[in-house]
């Protein structure tokens, strides 16, 4: 689970969300209300759809393009259940909420892959020689 979460407000524009997606190197953002409760998700696909429809990204707001009432999980949800949700719903991330339904984290496909795949790769680059590299550690997911 990623606990350092960037979230959008309902009034955040599609342009601002798109810029955040590019800067943060992720594919979606949860949308929260004034109480930090998850009310939607905006993904790169939602922004692409808005572009295709000829919408002005500077004036379209998160609330206009978000997927409403997304699936959320609690922190103690088993990884296997989260995988089932991701596969069944064909989604890229699942918000994690506390008992008051406030956003506390996200679990993405990559979080799960990084948790379960610990392959070593050789990095070859100019002046770097050969070195073994592992993916950076992520906070653990409950198994």
Describe the structure.
This protein has one domain: CBS-domain (Roll). It is an alpha/beta fold. The radius of gyration is 17 Å and the shape is globular. Strand 2 and strand 3 form a beta hairpin. It is built from five helices and nine strands. Residues 128-140 have low confidence and may be disordered. The termini are close together. The strands form three sheets. It has a four-stranded mixed sheet. A three-stranded mixed sheet has the order 5-6-7.
CATH superfamily: CBS-domain
The total strand number stands at 9
Q: Under CATH, the topology is which?
A: CBS-domain
At CATH level 2, the architecture is Roll
End-to-end C-alpha gap: 12 Å
- Class derived from helix and strand content: alpha/beta
Domain count: 1
Taking strands numbered 1, 2, ... along the chain, how are they ordered across the largest sheet? 1-2-3-4
Rg, please?
A: 17 Å
Brief descriptors of the model:
alpha/beta, 9 strands, CBS-domain, 27% strand, 5 helices, 30% helix, single chain, 143 residues
How would you summarize this macromolecular structure in one to three sentences?
This protein is α/β, with parallel strands linked by helices and 143 residues long. Helix content is 30%, strand content 27%.
SSE blueprint and pairings:
Elements: E1 8-9, H1 14-24, E2 28-32, E3 38-43, H2 44-52, H3 62-65, E4 67-68, E5 73-74, H4 79-89, E6 93-97, E7 103-108, H5 109-116, E8 121-125, E9 129-133
